[in-house]
Specification:
Protein name: Zinc-type alcohol dehydrogenase-like protein
Organism: Roseimaritima multifibrata
Main location: cytoplasm
Distance between the termini: 12 Å
Oligomer: single chain
CATH class of the largest domain: Alpha Beta
Shape: globular
Radius of gyration: 20 Å
Pfam families: ADH_N, ADH_zinc_N
Number of domains: 2
GO cellular component, one term: cytoplasm
Length: 338
Amino acid sequence: MKAVALTHYLPITDPNSLMDVELDKPVPTGRDLLIATKAIAVNPVDYKVRAPKETVEPTPKVLGWDAAGIVEAVGPDVTLFQPGDEVYYAGDITRQGANSEFHLIDERIVGSKPKSLDFAHAAAFPLTSITAYEAFFERLNIDVDGANKGESILIIGGAGGVGSIAIQLAKIAGLNVITTASRPESSAWVKKLGADHVINHREPLRPQIESIGLKYVDYIALFNDTDGHWNAAVDLIRPQGHIVTIVENSKPLEQNEMKMKAATFSWEFMFTRSMFQTPDMIEQHHLLNRIAHWIDDGRIQGTAGDVMSPINAKNLRAAHATLEEGRAIGKIVLKGWE
């Protein structure tokens, strides 16, 4: 089968950083589905895993943690799907990724593809949807059915992949959504997705928050530069408020004011359930199905910003470069094999 893989961890400008390869078609066992991959999307985790280091892989390593396709075959313990089903999913970072013609994935972290979307636009949703859903409704404990209606959330990094779906989930929950964007095109994007207020994360945040009539916000989601925005977030979170981040830090995160405010801080990492095989792993199956229903009901807009074809090393290198440079708006998707 065709795949895009690496053996050495190299700068994306090196043509060997991602290579077109031929691999054996895998066989499903246990609760695995064998997926015929029709489209994939690219996320920051892809280039972070691919980042230059001394490690050399003895066999080609396949990246990619966003896909949509058709169930080709199932393992003997599968109960949720059957061959021919159209699905979408984000995958498991401890296994081979989805940048291949056929891919094995545990059925418990797979959802039924939204009926209203083609494979390319469906592939833009899984990783970001799981991340935003878990961040808001599990880490921040926002009520998905609207019990927190009218409360405020500040999303730092609203125009990226996670921010694009997070804005919409926050509106479904009835929140007053403030998000950051620094360019005219990214500001237009987040407004289109439903943001109530847009502020610039390259400028001091407190004066901008106060200009819309707030002293504090109830929730803060750090989807960009945890180190750079931490102090502003701690200053702006209300007493007993909640902060969540998905971006790793490289410096200590000062906690004294968090203590004074009795504020809580949570990490969101969407691979945790599959990485540790948690007892509630199947929750990702359920939430992906819920997202699919919202998409089909018109409550969530597509977040694909750029769709490229075909799926090959050249196009994936270009997608990685765009993400690394911070130029992406929405998700970058690749569809079809040559």
